[in-house]
Structure formats: structure tokens, C-alpha cells
Here is the input.
Amino acid sequence: MNGYWPRLTPTAERGHDVARISDETRRNNETAIRHVMDRLLAGDVPSGGKCDIKTLATQAGVARTGFYPKKNRDGSPRPGPYQHLAEEFERRLAELRETGVIPDPRAAQIERLKEQVSGLKERLAARDVEIDGLTDFRERALSQIAAQRIEIERLRDVLAEPSNVRALPNSSRASAPYGSCS
Here is the structure.
């Protein structure tokens, strides 16, 4: 050889026409795709898979590229051999979601967890408001207790000095409802 790669043969000679599938194979593939589509939309999603085109193609044993549009040699678009099935799958999946059914257990779990997180955030915000209110109440109560203590000490000092303020007599029958203030 001359150090170069061998010259490639024209397309037909390389077997590219062999890649084209027969009508029978296409029908069999469509049947397999529809069967897998029904399973996926019913919620029977394989472990590690999703309810999507990739899993649909993998489970049906066909190339994923068959679900997407192709281009002719002249650049004009042409539909993929299974593009109509991909569109049907997406349409049916959208209809299920509109009715509130999520066939993919993983996606359903994600939605459920999002709702749970949202609920927990609301509860947390309500608790924060409640804690703020209780903190304010505690500060006001402590402030009032401190002011009352200062007033009691002032009144005791006034009683201890000679003035016109007189102490009330202690009654042996009466008791303070919450104990003594001294």
C-alpha cells in the first residue's frame, strides 16, 4: 500500500442499501414499538429507564434515530420510519399528564416529592412566623417583669425611709394567688 487509507467504494457497493428494512420487518418493528409503548404508558417502566423515546426504542429493539426526521441527499426533509409512532407516544403521554396520570414511577415520585417539599416549606414559614411572635411575646414579658421588679424595689425603698407611705397590714387569712412577691 502507499501509506494512505484504501479508497472507499461507492455507496451501493458498500452495502448501504442493505440497511433499508423490508416492509415485513418494519411492520414487526412497529408492532413491537406499539407493544412497548402500551407497557410504558401503563406504568411498566424498566429499572433505570424513563417513559421516553430512548427507553421506547431500547425496549423495542430498534434504533432511536428511526423516531426522528431525516434528510434526503438533496437536503429536503423526510419523516423517520417510526416518527409517526414517536408523535403518537408523545401525544398519548401528554394526554395522560393532562388527566393527572404520570405513568413513569420515577417522575411521579419526583412530583410527589416536589409537592411534599412545597408543603414543608409552607409549614416552615408558618413556624417561623409563630416563633417570631413567641419571641416578641417573651421579650415583652421579660421587659414587664423587669419593670415590675424595679417598681417593687422602689416601693420597698420608699417604705424603708420615713415618708407618708404606709404598708398595708398583712392578713393571715389572705394569700397571694401565685405566691409571695418578696
In short: The longest strand covers residues 70-71. Residues 23-103 form one domain.
